[in-house]
Amino acid sequence: MSTHTKHNDGHGHHKETFLTKYIFSQDHKMISKQFLITGIIMGTIGMLMSMLFRLQLAYPDTKFPFLESLIGQWGEGGKLSPDFYLALITIHGTIMVFFVLTAGLSGTFSNLLIPLQCGARDMASPFLNMLSYWFFFVSSCVLIFSLFVDGGPASAGWTVYPPLSALPKAIPGSGTGMTLWLVSMILFIFSALLAGINYVATILNMRTLGMKMTRMPLTIWAFMFTAILGILSFPVLFGGSLLLVFDRSFGTSFYLNEIPADLAGGIERVGGSPILFQHLFWFLGHPEVYIILLPALGITSEVIATNSRKPIFGYRSMIGSLMAIALLSFIVWGHHMFVTGMNPFLGSVFMLGTLIIAVPSAVKTFNYLATLWKGNLQLTPAMMFAIGLVSFFISGGLTGLFLGNAALDINLHDTYFVVAHFHIVMGSAAIFGMMSGIYHWFPKMFGRKMNESLGQIHFWFTIISAYLVFFPMHFMGLAGVPRRYYTNTAYEPFAAFVDMNEFITMAALLGGAAQLIFLFNFFYSIFKGKKSEQNPWQSNTLEWTTPVKHLHGNWPGEIPHVYRWPYDYSKPGHTEDFLPQNIPDEGQLDPLVDLEIVPSTEFEKK
Amino acid sequence: MEHTEHLEHTEAPADMKKQIWRTFWILFALTIVDIALYFILSPSLPKNILFIVLGIVKAYFIVGIFMHMKFEKKFLSSMIVLPMLFICFFIWLALTEADYTYWLRWLFGK
Amino acid sequence: MSNTVTVETSKKSLWGGGRSPFSISYGKLMMWIFLLSDAFTFSSLLISYGFVRYSFPKSPPNEIVQPFTHVEENFVEQMQQQGLFSSEHWPLPELVFNHFPFIHGLNLPLMFVSLMTFILIFSSVTMVLAVEAGHRMAKKEVAFYMLLTIFGGAAFLGCQAWEWAQFITAGASLEGNPFGPTAFAALFFIVTGFHGSHVFSGVILNIVIYLNVLKGTYDKRGHYEMVEKVGLYWHFVDLVWVFVFTFYYLV
Ligand code: HEM
Ligand SMILES: [Cu+2]
Questions:
Q1: Quick one: CATH architecture of A28-545?
Q2: Is residue A11 scored above 60 in pLDDT?
Q3: What is the interface pTM, i.e. ipTM, of the complex?
């Protein structure tokens, strides 16, 4: 262990400038803050976009003069233009799915917690870690920049199906905007891969002594499976995007068939199939929804156990179900394509896989409920949001059973039922997990606490408005109202829903306003929040054994050794109701001895 | 930032050099067999399957000996190799789907 | 192996933290994981190839042109008239790839690509010999084998450039080709191009490592692990070629 101390001494000599400390930092704690703040900014942008198109859906015939000053030609005469409506929902979806809930959620908490909870000084490769953030940052900038180009940003939906995405002249958003979308996405893929490879290598290779795999907090298990999903699925999107770039710009026709030359840049396009793109896209797309959800589930496990002051119920079955979900998520992607012309036989294969996922999901839900049961509940804002996640996971998961059924999906596909389903189970649930994580680990990130009462207000307004917004959408969907339509009043049967749309928009505005409370609380607390003690939630995991003030290298002395799993809450026979992982039982051997580790020759590697 | 690491090598066999050359000759021979079979057999599904099997055998030698996978810990090799099952699933699926596309085009005369 | 010691480890201690459960450094582990993800990228391209190809009718068997026989200047037009090349079905690789540098007028199917395969396999061998020499800390040998590997890579790239040039002169491009469906040529360019760009970056990496070996960087560091890491990458490139060869030229 002598090298550890030596290693730490080495750090005192580094001179840190503003640039290396805050901008090009290689410290995982700083990178996690960068991910979080970029994610919050992108989230705010995405949310504001949803407000704009919600206004259009609620008041299709009213003019809002402020729109013209806000978005110029796209809001001529105070009316949102149809093209820009499509652009807005596309960019809203892209931002929310990739930039907020992939990078902003997994990026933030994996970076913060993997080294801290595993007991490592930093990520395996701090440099690649920094690079991953900067790829993400540039990719966000490119996407935002695409809002201002001629023709507007990409408008083919976040799934960018060809031919809308493959023929630059198809709709206004298919031109430069679409190209920039692809550039942004390819940068994003690099970022996700660099990050994921780093996370897995760190978790496997750099745990502290005694941190067996079965002593890892469930957060780490979740981050590991998230990273694996990303590593295996993002490359396929890369391949798909590459071919799409060639279709767009170089006259190939992988995804195009029967397109006459005058529509396609002077070359007749035959022989391809848009279904191919859909397969490549959804090979990423479905694991992607678990990339979004798994970190939130991991965070919830941790927060619920800590704040129920009880061991998590069914630790091993939690790991097992995470693993099962991760495995299954690779063989179910076709449930997004039941009615797009896919081979119906494959439809039944995919349906089977999809319905099986309900089993591990239910295991997780029951484990959460069993952990809460008769716990000594500490209803902190983090806990409230975690419980909120469980609620959304249940109500959104149930509608997934309908959509996963190939026959029912014929009716439900591309209606507001789908919008309701994924906003609840993926949108709201993951956002709630993220919020829970922010409230819980804010003291670790910034050394201060967020305001509790504001947190509670934020929670209640958010959960109520989220249900008010997304629940009614189920009924619209069952009645057949299609998604991605600019105005529903143009169709007789759907015009009746204008009242409901108005109601939903009101609720959405309320929900948006509630986020202002959060934004205020967040930024105010960074500078002026109550100073936090070292272990404010009396939690067991290793990150709370580090000092409040951040150190490069995390622990001032030796890295603590680990003697127990992280969920020893309210253990009988102890005065405190928690037992941190680094506290040995009476007579317990040090892992160094217990695990019969013969120290091998160590050497410092640059 | 530096790291401290325990580095031990999973021991390579003493006659590594011999093994390397043996592997080279195997790969060489397999490629020749490939070409020979290409001209001896007429195009058919079994022939294609044979090529793919030969490809996988070559991959086994490259990954196992050249990339040292045979001498690494079992868990590492399964961690790297098993995910390829997803690819197998995807291949089966893409071909089934392509076949369906073929029949649809035939049916509608496109 | 001056800096490495094999330790007796029970399974329990392998996963008990404080060490790598695989006894490999994080750098090598990251390289393996990266290669896994890169394998998925190549797979997605090859799967797209399979999809497009399979949605076309099969090619008719070739009973006309025997290997090692004379071919006319207007070979492609002949084949088109015979119906062996048509945008309706996938072409037979033996009729498309039948040229060899400096030999004109002879049907030499798949000969050139076999040569390319041998070159790549050989460069893989020299690479793994460099790694082996690295274990013995034999600087001179490492440098020698690295240099051979670089030459092998460059030779392969040269061959590929010739193959592309040949293909392009025959009239193939991303937008069309005389041998068969457009997608045939386009996928050929994209898949071999993507592989070629991997070879290219591999050669660059090898050059960097080679220079470092000459400078004695790894001697000072006490181990040649960096050579192993690029070695892994290089073998992977070879591995991908095996499958490109199988699916593009043989199947
Ligand atoms: C601020 C609260 C939100 C509101 C009011 C909202 C509302 C909407 C609406 C009305 C649509 C368009 C439906 C259509 O016309 O087809 C939409 C699309 C979408 N939203 Fe949200 N949303 C919100 C948050 C989120 C979150 C957190 C996510 C993260 C998963 C998300 C992901 C998406 C996606 C993926 C689409 C589909 C875009 C497309 O059709 O290509 N949204 N949202
Ligand atoms: Cu899905």
A1: Up-down Bundle (1.20)
A2: no
A3: 0.92
> How many Å lie between the centroid of ligand 2 and the Cα of residue A337?
10
- Which one of A212, A216, A252 makes the best mutation probe of the C interface by having the most chain C beta carbons within 10 Å? A252
At residue A93 the predicted structure's pLDDT band, cuts being 50, 70 and 90, is very high
- A–B CB contacts, 8 A cutoff, strictly below: 68
User: Nearest-5° angle of CA B57, CA B61, CA B65?
Assistant: 165
Mean pLDDT score of chain A: 91
CA distance A43 to A36: 10
Specify the pLDDT at position B13.
67
Q: Nearest chain C Cα to B57, which residue? A: C242
Q: Exposure of A509 by Cβ count < 10 A (0-12 exposed, 13-18 middle, 19+ buried)?
A: middle
Q: What are residue A153's phi and psi, to 5 degrees?
A: -75, 175
A539: left (phi over 0), alpha (psi -120 to 50) or beta: beta
Mean pLDDT of C191-211: 96
Q: Are A95 and A45 in contact (CB under 8 A)?
A: yes
* Atom from ligand 1 closest to the CA of residue A159: 41
Residue A121 dihedral angles phi and psi, to the nearest 5°: -75, -30
Q: What's the whole-model pTM score?
A: 0.93
Task: Name all domains of chain C by residue range, CATH numbers in brackets.
Answer: 20-59+75-250 (1.20.120.80)
More confident residue, C19 or A366: A366
What is the distance between the alpha carbons of residues A129 and A516, in angstroms, rounded to a whole number? 31
| Closest alpha carbon within chain C to B101 | C55
CA distance A56 to B70: 62
pLDDT at A4: 38
Nearest to A133 by CA among A19, A275, A60, A36: A36
Asked if the model's pLDDT at residue C251 lies above 80, the reply is yes
Check if B2 contacts A (Cβ < 8 Å).
yes
Q: Over the stretch A261-307, which tens digit does the pLDDT of each residue have?
A: 888 888 888 889 999 999 999 999 999 999 999 999 999 999 999 99
- From the list A257, A250, A260, the residue with the least C-alpha distance to A271 is A257
Q: Does A486 contact ligand 1 (Cβ within 6 A)?
A: no
